[in-house]
Every structure is written in C-alpha cells, then in structure tokens.
Amino acid sequence: MKQITTGSADNRTASAGSEISLAGTTEAAEFPSKGSVPFLIQMLSRMLTNDYMSRVRDDHLAPAQTYVLRELLIAEPLSQADLARRLEIGKASVGETLVRLEAAGLIARSRSPRDGRAILIRLTRKGRQIRSKLGEIAFDQVQMVERHLGSAEAEQLISLLTRLTIAMKGEDQGKGR
Predict the structure, then answer these.
(1) How much is the average pLDDT of 166-170?
(2) The sheet that has 107-111: what strands, in order across it?
(3) Which one, of 127, 155, 140, lies nearest residue 48 by Cα?
(4) Count of C-beta atoms within a 10 Å radius of residue 176
(5) Quick check: helix, strand or coil at residue 121?
(6) Which positions ≥6 away from 25 have C-beta within 8 Å?
(7) What per-residue confidence (pLDDT) applies to 176?
(8) Which of 23, 80, 104, 149 fits a disulfide with 35 by CB distance 3.0 to 4.6 angstroms?
(9) For the chain, how are helix, strand and coil distributed in percent, rounded to 5?
(10) 48-to-66, 92, 153 alpha-carbon distances in Å
(11) Are 35 and 6 in contact (CB under 8 A)?
(12) Alpha-carbon distances of 88 from 4, 22, 24, 93, rounded to whole Å
C-alpha cells in the first residue's frame, strides 16, 4: 500500500519508493489526498465551470455546447471531424451537441463547396450574438485568476499546466488511447 506524506509547500519531494510528499500528515493512501494536484485541478475546474454555466444559464447552454461555440467563434466553418479534433472528443459526442445547437438556432450545417460529401458547421446570426457574452465571461475568469495570483504566477501556472497537459497527452498516446 502506498503512503502519502504531506508537508509544507516547500517540502514536495517524491522518493523512488512508495512515499509521495504532498501537503501535511502521513496516511495510508487508497485515494489521493485533497491536497493532490489532480484533486485540486478537478476542484478548480468544477468551480470555474459552475461559474461559467451560472452565467449562461439564461441561454440554456450545456458546457459541451459552449465549447463548440467557442471553437466556431475562433474559426469557422469547421467540419464535425475538425471540431472533434480541436475539442479532443469523439465525433459522435460532437454530433449530439451539434443537433442541440442546431435545434436552438445557433448553428447551421451546409455541404462543402469543395467536397460535396463534407458537412461544414457555421454559426448563425443568433450564434454570433452570443460571442460577446462568452468572451466577457472567459475574460472575467482570466482576470479573477490574475487577481488572486498576480500576472507572473498566473503565467507560471499556465506554463506548468501546459507542460503537464502535453506530457499526459504523450502518455495517453503511448497507451493507445
């Protein structure tokens, strides 16, 4: 059974053995502590998502729908496969989200003029109208992080999370995921 030793923020060493130092007391670890990086990232993600979703509640948007709209606001038109690749989720999941966005009148699908088999997704006028609201919410969240950390630590956090994301994607690809 692994043991987790938690200590101060300055005492975050991991030995080659079974002990991992995270943030306080030693305990038998069947489950990572609330001070672990994965737990804290998940907690922060939930908090930011809840804030974001509470602010788009009147628009009746689900998180997946806001992710698709964001990608289309950055670049359009996009195919379903392009969206799946950019969001790093399956085409079927994107397809379900597109059905809901189309029913809400936020997107439209049309055949590609270059390849009649391909379907391209574009924002409708109604879909474009939500741009400023989604951008304002995202900007507010960036400012909130900088207010709590300062811009230098926020940049450091971005760097660390980017490194971790790239490393973990590499591990996932190595496992055939």
Answers:
(1) 88
(2) 78-79, 119-123, 107-111
(3) 140
(4) 5
(5) strand
(6) 5, 6
(7) 57
(8) 23
(9) 60, 10, 30
(10) 13, 26, 18
(11) yes
(12) 32, 30, 36, 10
Mean pLDDT, the chain, whole residue set: 82
pTM equals 0.67
Hey, CA dihedral for 2, 14, 172, 157, is it positive or negative?
positive
Give the architecture-level CATH label for domain 62-129.
Orthogonal Bundle (1.10)
Q: Is 164 helix (H, G, I), strand (E, B) or coil?
A: helix
Report how far residue 14's alpha carbon sits from residue 62's, in angstroms, rounded to the nearest whole number: 39
Collect all residues with Cβ–Cβ distance below 8 Å to 16 and sequence separation of at least 6: none
Q: List all residues 6 or more positions away from 51 whose beta carbon is below 8 Å from its beta carbon.
A: 137, 141
29's tokens: 């670890």
Query: Where, residue-wise, is CATH 1.10.10.10 in the chain?
Result: 62-129
What is the per-residue pLDDT across 31-55, written as a single tens digit (0 to 9) for each?
Answer: 778 888 889 999 999 999 899 889 8
Instruction: Determine the pLDDT at residue 19.
Output: 43
Cite the beta strand spans of the chain per DSSP E. 3-5, 19-21, 26-28, 78-79, 107-111, 119-123
